[in-house]
Amino acid sequence: MDEFDYDAVIVGAGPIGGYLAQKLAKNKLKVLILEEHSEIGRPFQCAGLVNPKAMASVGLVNTVLTPIWGARIYSPEGTLVEIGHEEKVRTWSVCRKLFDEAVVIQSIESGADIWLSSKPINLEFKEDSVEIEILTPNGIKKLTTKIICGADGAHSWVRRTMRMGRPKETMIGMQIEVTGYMGKNGKLDMYTGSDISPGFFAWVIPSGDTARVGVWSQTKYIGERSCEELLNELMNNSRWSFKFKDCKEVGRFVGSVPSGILKNTTSTRVALFGDAAGICKPTTGGGIGPGFAHIDIIVDDFIDLIRKNKLDATSLSKIDKKIDKMRKSQSRARALRDAFLSHSTDEELEEIFKVWAKPDVIKMINEVGEIENPIPLGTKMLKDIPEFRKLAGKAIKAVLWS
Question: By its UniProt entry, which Pfam families does this protein fall under (predicted)?
Answer without folding.
Answer: FAD_binding_3 (PF01494)
